[in-house]
What does this fold into?
Amino acid sequence: MKHFRLTIAVLTAVLLASCSAQKRVWYIQDARVETPEQILRNGQIRIKPLDRLTVVVNSRDPELAVPFNSSTSYSSLSGTPTATASGVQSLQVRTVDEEGFLDMPVIGKIDCRDKTRTELAEAIASKIAEEGYINEPTVNVQFADMKIAVLGEVARPGEYTVRHDRLSVFDALAMAGDMTVFGMRNEVTVIREADGKRTVMLLDLTSRKVFESPAFYLQQNDVIYVKPNKYKAQSGEISQNRSFYLSLVGTAISVATLIITLTKK
It folds into this structure.
């Protein structure tokens, strides 16, 4: 009977430990199943100073759109350039200046600050139409090289290109192959630089409150760092110490061998 009770106690302890270990790798542990929640509306990526963009203007009459898509400055829409233009039309990459303005051919500077791609396209189209250049222009704006970095305890740490207007921290982790079992899901760091300031934010991915964080939806150039848990940190420290001591022992043996060799001579 005593052996039976001891066996039951051991099995219970093992099951509890297993459940506890599994819970450490769960996301959104307090989720309300099948309960709709309001999604944040400001999750789209906003344009920042020094972003590199491609802007393409189209018109029913293709000739009218040519000056807006060229790197050459035009004095008017008569097609007379102020400098010699290349005979081949190529997609131009334009950089937002440090004040948040984009310098466009013909119409000049456009305020890009805190605008989405769609909002900037609408602003450019409106200015072209208002100044009488094209009646109904269509404008397409794309980010030329928008990236984020995912570091720490993930399967594939590195820098990733963003191809969507809205990117959540879960999307970023999926791109990096998800966290390893050693990643701390309740303490994920997001580092963001905006308006000349650097902000460090912590996310608890085990709680549904993560959806309310301003860092849940990422911005361009954000850095996501997944901290290792204590088990990984301890194993790393032990491994580092072992390497140090093995190196020290190896050096000592080499020195002792050299001394013995010199003594024999």
User: Anything to note?
Assistant: The first strand starts at residue 52 and ends at 58. Residues 9-22, 73-89 have pLDDT under 50 and may be disordered. The radius of gyration is 29 Å.
